[in-house]
Amino acid sequence: MSQSAKIVMKDPFSEVLSVLETQSVRGTSLEAGGTWSLSFDGRLRLKFIAVLTGQCWLILADRDPEPLIEGDVILLSNTSYTVASHPNIEPCDGMTLYAPSGHNTVRLGDRIETMLIGGGSGFASVNASFLLDALPTFLRVDPCSASAHSIARTLYALKEESDADKVGGSLVAGRLAEILIVEAIRSYISTDPNENIGWIAALADARIAKAIRLMHNDVARRWTIDSLAREIGMSRSSLTLRFSQRVGRAPMDYLTRWRMILSERQLASGSSISDVALSVGYTSQSAFTHAFKRVMGRTPRGR
Question: 12-190 domain in CATH 3.40.50.300?
């Protein structure tokens, strides 16, 4: 490699999405009028809702009801929720209305006053919490932002794919789901970057983002707080404090967690424990096994 050649740094967020294996949740729509209320259970997923016309209410546990109006786009992370014409109406189970295969549109009432379109993304990996825990339960995307318009367009496309049932539809839907996530994350990072906590929000902090990228780029390196601090031009104590405040966990704790997520994926594909241990920076299989059990709650052989 020439001295002028540059090492291309990994994008941590894109890598996480790839490792967690994004899966599309089908696109749906609701056309409603009069008095109505539908509840939906919480699943390990991201859920998107866009208000096309009219208005309604979103009800979440431990939170005041949120009024939604035309143009609103919201992101829900791993939570149950209710949408209703008024927050005081007793809800019925919305899941049963969408349960039949291919039944992607629900109509309520004789006169359509409100139209919603929804969709979302699940994850094949059992470690989806690594992403979901770094996001707020509720996020209202700025309706004037490019992200809001992109999400609404993508939801339209996702619903069309769900309705059409064409060859390759699941592949297209998966790509659309990834677009939804990326646009929502871009919006999240740009809003109150100094207030939000979690590794995703911390990507708005240049120095902490560099620390995260360095660890992702060379996960097997024998990183220490000292070596990481030198790389980004901070003192050991300043890095530890700032990283912990922004990410919600210490740098080496974050690195260990990410290493174990990568390890679990490799173990699931049939790689040996010794090979996996080396690939994520452990020269001792016993040390790797101890770390894996501490983070994952079971031994590598306990799959």
Answer: no
Strands (E), the chain: 22-32, 37-40, 45-53, 55-59, 66-69, 73-77, 81-84, 92-93, 105-108, 114-123, 138-141
201-302: which CATH number, 1.10.10.60, 1.20.120.520, 3.40.50.1820, 3.90.190.10? Answer: 1.10.10.60
Q: Which residues pair with 56 in a beta bridge?
A: 68
Residue range(s) in the chain whose domain bears CATH number 1.10.10.60: 201-302
List the Cα angle 62/68/74 in 5-degree steps.
75
Residue type at 94 in one-letter notation: G
Query: How many CA atoms lie less than 13 Å away from 36 in the CB half-sphere?
Result: 22
Sheet strands side by side (includes 92-93) = 66-69, 55-59, 81-84, 37-40, 92-93
pTM: 0.83
Question: Amino acid letter at 195?
Answer: E
Tens-level pLDDT at each residue, the chain (303 residues): 444 445 567 789 889 988 988 876 777 889 999 999 999 987 778 888 889 899 999 999 989 999 999 988 888 998 999 999 999 999 999 999 988 876 788 999 989 999 998 887 888 888 888 988 888 899 888 777 788 888 888 888 877 877 777 777 777 877 787 788 788 888 888 776 566 789 998 998 999 999 999 999 999 999 999 999 999 999 999 999 999 999 999 999 999 999 999 999 999 999 999 999 999 999 999 999 999 999 999 999 865
Beta strand 22-32 pairing with 105-108: parallel
Q: Of 294, 292, 274, 272, nearest to 283 (Cα)?
A: 274
Considering the chain, tell me which residue range(s) the CATH 2.60.120.280 domain(s) occupy. 12-190
